[in-house]
Amino acid sequence: MNDSRVERPLTVARLNILGFGSGLLIFFLASVFLLSIGLIVFLVKNGIKDTFTDYWLHLLILTLVEIIIFWTGIIIVYATSAQLGLKIRILGIVCGMIPILHIIVLILIISITTREVSFEKKKIKLDKERHSQQICKTKYPILMVHGVFFRDFKYFNYWGRVPAELEKNGATIYYGNHQSAASVDESAMELAERVKQIVRETGCEKVNIIAHSKGGLDSKVAVACTDIAPLVASVTTINTPHMGCEFAEYLLVKAPEGLRNKVAGAYNSALKKLGDSDPSFLDAVNDLTAVKCRNINDRVSHYDFRAHGIYTQSVGSCMKHAISGAFPLNMSYHLVGHFDGPNDGLVGEPSFHWGENYIYLENKKNRGISHGDMIDLNRENINGFDIREFYVQLVAGLKQRGL
Fold it and tell me: Of 169, 224, 246, 382, which is the most buried if we count CB atoms within 10 A?
């Protein structure tokens, strides 16, 4: 069920409250600046002693009013902003009593929250204006396939805010619901069964697959090497390592066997607790290496997707600096760059290419677009790139193709 009708009033109310809080902080800054100038004038004219003797009550009242305005505003924005993030919130607390720095951080907080209000209200307006067009209402539903080490959790969507945005614009969404860590072949079999289940239970005839990272490898193998091809209308891979990851191969070769097994055991144990029935960390990682991906490509090369009426396309993006990505992508960016060139923090740009059409995303702003950004992992409004609108237009393109 599409619950965007419920979500929108709640979102608008939150944004209105956030806007009010931001306005209070702006008023606080402006009024403190003006009052400071006025106080200086009084001090020069009347002297320190007379100013505080004659106007102490006025100064006390003004100080209390400013304190109330500030704390009301800061509590509101801390409670309602989705974009401040934990880092900025902590920074605000730590720098709150440090002269000069507290002003700088407050200006940063105001900048983030006011931009959030403006950006989100524009999105709501855009969705409202084009609601009747249902530009994402494709002939066949969308099957979204996650990457490695993640699951399709009920209360934490792997794809962030993207599915809700697609649904607002008419899309019908399903998820792969496969294990988080398994070999490409095993994941492909799971996805094949999932596709059959969706078609059988809904009567939709076919699905449009949108798959991220390793999910792209799983999906193309599922189509080419199982019996679900007649049930698939299109396959779109997002930041998928079609040619593998050289750096992953290097790490696997260099890491001592004991360390590899210890890390794998820890991951497998954790993944079982999260719902995987039989996770295999090493199988999943090995299938991301350049050697394994070449083998996969050799196996699917016989299959002509276009001849079977399946539209294929791929998407890739790149970070511009290590700081463009959140941990751990900020740590791996330079290592991946050494082996694979321009990259998204995990996958090199040459590895993204696959299918009839290739879309390469470069942010014109200083902020790049990471592997995690492509699934809205941090729910961040990136300056210069709207991840939700990108997917809306991507799915709208499928609709225009009659898929």
Answer: 169
What is 87-138 written as a DSSP string?
A: HHHHHHHHGGGSTTHHHHHHHHHHHHHHHHHHHHHHHHHHHHHTGGG-TT--
* CA–CA dist 32, 344 (Å, integer): 44
Whether 315 and 359 have beta carbons less than 8 Å apart is answered as: yes
pTM across the whole model: 0.87
Helix (H) or strand (E) holding 313: strand 311-317
Assigned token pair, 377: 């992992």
Measured between alpha carbons, how far is 147 from 55 in angstroms, rounded to an integer? 66
Are 296 and 184 contacting, i.e. CB atoms less than 8 angstroms apart?
Answer: yes
Place of tokens 């066949």: 140
Residues in the chain: 403
Cβ 135 vs Cβ 166: under 8 Å: no
List pLDDT tens digits, range 134-148. Answer: 999 999 999 999 998
Share in percent of the chain as helix, strand, coil (round to 5)? 60, 10, 30
Across the range 341-349, mean pLDDT stands at 89
- Which residue in this structure is represented by tokens 């002297």? 47
Round to whole Å and give the CA distance between 287 and 166: 31
Q: For residue 213, how many C-alpha atoms fall within 13 Å in the half-sphere facing its CB?
A: 24
- Among candidates 249, 39, 394, which has minimal Cα distance to 403? 394
Burial of residue 162 (CB within 10 Å: 0-12, 13-18, 19+) is buried
Measured distance CA(264)–CA(255) in Å, rounded = 12
For 289-331, how does the pLDDT look when each residue is reduced to its tens digit (9 = 90+)?
888 999 999 999 889 999 999 999 999 999 888 777 776 667 7
Buried b (16+ CB within 10 A) or exposed e, 315-349: bbbbbbeeebbbeebbebbeebbebbebbbbbbbb
Q: Which two tokens stand for residue 350?
A: 């040459």
pLDDT of residue 271: 81
CB-CB contact of 193 with 177 (8 Å): no
Distance separating alpha carbons of residues 140 and 234, to the nearest angstrom: 10
